[in-house]
Amino acid sequence: MKTILYLASVVMVVALTGCASPAKVENMATDGQPSQRVATTPLRNNLAVRDVTGGKETNPMWVSNVGSNEFEQALEASLKNVGLFAPKQAGDYFITAHLEKLDQPFIGISMTVTSSILYTVTERKTGKNIYTRSIVTPYTASFSDAALGVERLRLANEGSIRENIKQVIDDLFRLNMQNIAVK
């Protein structure tokens, strides 16, 4: 009888809290700013994604995480949306991204996740790094965004990565390429 009550209580807790789900690519990708879609830059259709590392797969019985594969897809989609993306074998430049840290709360009504990502853009021809920066961005998902904690955490993960990608894209459009353009 105790075993049945124990199993029933475990099932009830899982049902009430839900299972963790991984970050969704479409919620991490950004459309960028409208001006970025038409801005002139040597990176236009010229930036390939080389490596994306540091992500962790989600264990459905634990907490939501951001996998390297999903992060890579979101970065590629974002670069496509603003017109910077080039296929892996093409492009004069490539970008690498390493998810250094994903600070997540254990529990909370409002959940703030902070992502720290190291980006490097390298000129393919010379191997010269033209941009290196670690970007740290927080994002908060509140109770009004999702009632379940596991869902709020996923939303906060996605928002933090999306804001991080927005920041690197903004940086790339502000990058002074005149002195470093491929000749």
Folded structure, characterized:
The structure is a single chain. The protein is an alpha+beta fold and 183 residues long. 33% of the residues lie in helices and 24% in strands. The chain contains 4 helices and 4 strands. The chain has helices at residues 2-17, 25-28, 68-81, 149-174, and strands spanning 47-53, 93-103, 111-123, 129-141. A 4-stranded mixed sheet has the order 1-2-3-4. Strand 3 and strand 4 (129-141) form a beta hairpin. Helix 3 packs across helix 4. The longest helix has 26 residues, at 149-174. It starts with a helix and ends in a 9-residue tail after the last helix. The model is unreliable at 5-16 (pLDDT under 50).
Helix/strand layout:
Elements: H1 2-17, H2 25-28, E1 47-53, H3 68-81, E2 93-103, E3 111-123, E4 129-141, H4 149-174
Parallel strand pairs: 1-2
Antiparallel strand pairs: 2-3, 3-4
Helix pairs in contact: 3-4
Which structural traits does this protein have?
alpha+beta; 24% strand; single chain; 183 residues
* Helix residue percentage: 25-40%
Mean residue pLDDT: 85
Number of strands: 4
User: The biggest beta sheet, please?
Assistant: 4 strands, mixed
Strand content: 15-25%
Instruction: Quickly give the structural class.
Output: alpha+beta
* Overall geometry: elongated
Q: Stretches where pLDDT falls below 50 for ≥5 residues? A: 5-16
Order of helices and strands: HHEHEEEH
Describe the strand arrangement of the main beta sheet, using strand numbers.
Answer: 1-2-3-4
Count helical runs.
4
What is the C-alpha radius of gyration, as a whole number of Å?
A: 19 Å
Distance linking N and C termini: 78 Å
